[in-house]
TrEMBL record:
Signal peptide: none annotated. Gene3D superfamilies: HIV Type 1 Reverse Transcriptase, subunit A, domain 1, Zinc finger, CCHC-type. GO terms for molecular function: nucleic acid binding; zinc ion binding. It comes from the Eukaryota. It comes from Elysia marginata. This is Polyprotein. Residues 163-174 have a biased composition (Low complexity). PANTHER family: PROTEIN CBG26694, PROTEIN NYNRIN-LIKE. SUPFAM superfamilies: DNA/RNA polymerases, Retrovirus zinc finger-like domains. InterPro entries: DNA/RNA_pol_sf, Retrovirus_Pol_polyprotein, Znf_CCHC, Znf_CCHC_sf. Residues 185-201, 205-221 form the CCHC-type domain. Residues 159-184 are annotated as: Disordered.
């Protein structure tokens, strides 16, 4: 109807415009619904009612009421979104004259914030509009108060008070310090005037790590990320990788595989980056050549992998190393404090020589495992 008004279409042409614009499939369905009459013999209002009954039938009242009464405020959901959700669910519940009362009861009883819920229950003549306005105001006040306290200067200049006759200097105690109970710093917001179980931000989502249970000011994500990791590429001292070819093995040179245009620039950048770090070096000639496989990471960068199984791996004398059992490994890790996780390249741009151990080479994998077994845990 709004489309007709916007395009100044006369009322006597509404039916013709509808039938000419709905498409072949909906028109055939409409012909079946109006049979034995033709759709053109119906009024515009009748056609709209027929189509709505077919595509959007009226939902069952008891099912809609069940969904309404089951709805609670979700974790991380603000009050405004919760209000909109229960209003939308009440659309087909047919509450009639008790709609506002039912909305009020559902809103107050299903709030997650216990402090706001207690405040609403103190109101004697509470309406749905009054409950929503008061809850929204309290939620905004709590958020603004926390932002103000977080941005305030937390440094305190202490003034020593000399006690007469003792010559000792002490620290003054605030007047209201004894009236406020002190708790360990809350893991959700960092304050010490409440327990975490009563914290307003215990179900909040952090803007830094996007995890629930705390806010950005107390987020510990990334604090110890580089504490035990060296900058750049590390090397194992005293160990040099060697490749032993099988007898009568022939060099295998694989041509470069085509790189997708969408990844071409990223592959070039990654090759330059690896060469700057000394992981690879450019060469003009080689009897052996292994194609690279670009893998797109979750952050949009590219990881370059060498497909050694098609070239050098079948021609290598594999070095055997028996991995220790789980019980032996756990016994050696008993006094461990810091642990880590490890993850076990020709292209159309240049040929490169690998200067640092690469996973994927069958012999170097065993060399790496053997080296790990000789490391001592400090």
């Amino acid at each position: 109807m709004e489309c007709h008004k916007a395009n100044s279409i006369p009322e006597n042409k509404h039916t013709a415009v509808l039938l000419s614009s709905i498409g072949a499939k909906p028109y055939n369905i409409l012909c079946s619904l109006t049979a034995p009459d033709l759709p053109s013999s119906k009024t515009y209002a009748n056609l709209c009612q027929i189509l709505q009954s077919h595509y959007c039938p009226k939902p069952l009242e008891i099912v809609e009421q069940f969904k309404f009464h089951k709805r609670s405020q979700k974790t991380g959901e603000n009050i405004a979104d919760f209000i909109a959700a229960i209003k939308r669910l009440s659309e087909h519940c047919n509450f009639g004259t008790v709609l506002q009362t039912t909305l009020r009861d559902r809103f107050v009883c299903r709030l997650r914030d216990e402090a706001i819920q207690k405040r609403l229950l103190q109101e004697r003549d509470l309406t749905f509009e009054g409950a929503t306005n008061l809850a929204l105001a309290m939620e905004m006040a709590n958020r603004d108060a926390h932002d103000l306290q977080s941005s305030a200067d937390k440094s305190i200049h202490k003034i020593g008070i000399k006690t007469p006759g003792t010559g000792q200097t002490g620290t003054p105690t605030p007047r209201n310090q004894s009236s406020r109970p002190s708790f360990p710093p809350c893991l959700s917001c960092g304050k010490t005037d409440h327990k975490r179980s009563n914290c307003y931000f215990k179900d909040a989502t952090c803007n830094k790590c996007h995890k629930k249970g705390h806010i950005q000011t107390v987020c510990k994500s990334g604090q110890n990320q580089n504490k035990f990791l060296p900058n750049g590429i590390g090397n194992v001292k005293g160990i040099q990788g060697t490749l032993i070819l099988k007898e009568n093995s022939q060099p295998k040179f694989c041509k470069a595989r085509p790189v997708p245009y969408a990844l071409k620039k990223k592959v070039e950048q990654e090759l330059d980056n690896l060469e700057k770090q000394g992981i690879i070096s450019s060469v003009r000639h080689s009897d052996w050549a292994t194609p690279i496989v670009p893998v797109l990471k979750a952050n949009g960068d590219v990881r370059l992998c060498g497909d050694y199984k098609t070239t050098v791996n079948p021609n290598l004398e594999a070095e055997k190393y028996t991995l220790p059992g789980m019980e032996d490994m756990l016994a050696q890790l008993e006094q461990g404090v810091t642990f880590s996780k490890t993850r076990h390249y020709t292209n159309q741009f240049h040929y490169y020589h690998v200067t640092i151990l690469h996973f994927g080479n069958c012999r170097e994998k065993y060399k790496y495992e053997t080296s790990l077994a000789t490391l001592k845990i400090n």
